[in-house]
Design a protein that fits this description.
It is built from 14 helices and six strands. It is an alpha+beta fold and 374 residues long. A six-stranded antiparallel β-sheet has the order 1-2-3-4-5-6. Helix 11 runs parallel beside helix 14. About 1% of the residues have low confidence.
């Protein structure tokens, strides 16, 4: 890395750290004052409150804090360089504006990839884990133990033509209480299985105190059942992860899905494997979530591109106008992102177009404006 690149990078990272820290402290302090009474009722300790906000930090970073902090820090750095004629001197030495902006573009790409990993690895479970902390000292039906169980769970594996109905299901351990499974054999006949309990052991579903229907040569004869204490069924390919994605997606309304990314790529793919034939509305919602998951993190790179043409120009100009214009354009960009999510979820636009159009439109416009900078 050249000395100039290190200088530009250092000048950016310092105000970026201040912006990130300031936004996070402001949000945590504001939320803490509003939730302090609830925390006291829930008997949370200071360490648990800190753990709670730590789990919510990825959600805040992804939604607004990181892109806005990056925009403001870059605008501050660029206008500061322009005011001291540093950019003019660098360009007079034969460096193009694009070459000078390489460190900034690198930061935008880095944080875009960082947000993608954060969304996939941490974001899907962090709100649920944070809620578990708030219920840690609760007792009775609202306690954590009760929250681990889902009652009267029903789902269908359309790919393998299998229907499940479970009286109680533990989302943490995958244990089933009173499961009922019905599936179709290649010859067209139906089979049923009823058990007292079921667990996943070594990748195979094992059932206890089982009653299973057996083929009957005469369709008019009463159904014949065989009973056994323990039965391992290797052909049941459903996994606890797929069942959790089924629970999460079945509870996800179109209104929530239209606002922001709610699902990870793994959850969407697991659901698609269970349901290869989906209703058009559900398919539009899931495809929009998938493409938004891929397009959303690149917001960091787009805001870098937007900041460059408004912060870098030198000469006699009103700095406030340039900064205000870039902030307004970024605000319009964020609004268009949400609007695209709503159109894609509702099926009014193809999900690929609805989620990637804001990036392409504002990123392309920013590149065109940068090329016109003198």
């Amino acid at each position: 890395m050249r000395l100039l690149d290190r200088y530009l990078l250092r000048e950016l990272l310092i105000p970026l750290g201040y912006c990130l820290g300031g936004f996070l402290i402001f949000w945590i302090a504001f939320d803490l004052f509003s939730e302090l009474g609830a925390f006291q009722e829930e008997k949370l300790k200071a360490v648990e409150i800190a753990e709670y906000y730590l789990l919510l930090t990825p959600k805040l970073l992804q939604e607004i804090v990181l892109p806005v902090a990056l925009l403001l820090a870059l605008l501050y750095v660029l206008t500061n360089h322009a005011r001291h004629h540093e950019l003019t001197a660098m360009r007079a030495a034969g460096l193009s504006l694009w070459r000078l902006c390489v460190p900034y573009l690198f930061v935008g790409i880095f944080f875009s990839l960082f947000l993608f990993c954060l969304n996939e690895q941490w974001m899907p479970n962090s709100p649920e884990l944070a809620e578990q902390i708030r219920k840690r000292h609760a007792s009775g039906p609202t306690g954590l133990t009760d929250r681990q169980w889902r009652r009267d769970l029903k789902f269908r594996n359309d790919g393998d033509d299998r229907f499940w109905r479970i009286r109680n299901y533990n989302v943490e351990t995958g244990e089933m209480v009173e499961p009922y499974v019905e599936w179709r054999l290649p010859d067209g006949s139906h089979r049923q299985l009823v058990a007292e309990r079921g667990v996943l052991s070594n990748g195979v579903w094992t059932f206890f105190n089982v009653r299973r229907s057996v083929p009957n040569p005469s369709p008019d004869s009463p159904k014949v059942w065989e009973q056994t204490n323990v039965l391992a069924v290797a052909e049941f390919s459903e996994t606890p992860e797929q069942i959790k994605s089924e629970i999460k997606i079945s509870q996800l309304s179109s209104i929530k899905a239209a606002k922001k990314v709610q699902l990870s790529i793994a959850e969407i793919l697991d659901y698609n494997r269970l349901h290869p034939r989906l209703r058009q509305s559900t398919r539009a919602m899931l495809d929009t979530q998938l493409y938004a998951h891929l397009a959303g993190p690149w917001t960091c790179l787009v805001v870098v591109l937007i900041a460059i043409p408004f912060g870098a120009p030198s000469g006699r100009r009103n700095v406030f106008v340039g900064v205000a214009a870039s902030i307004f354009i970024c605000f319009a960009y964020f609004v268009l992102q949400r609007f695209g999510m709503a159109l894609g979820t509702g099926g009014y636009l193809p999900p690929l177009v609805a989620t990637w159009l804001p990036n392409a439109l504002f990123g392309g416009a920013a590149i065109w404006l940068t090329a016109r900078v003198r």
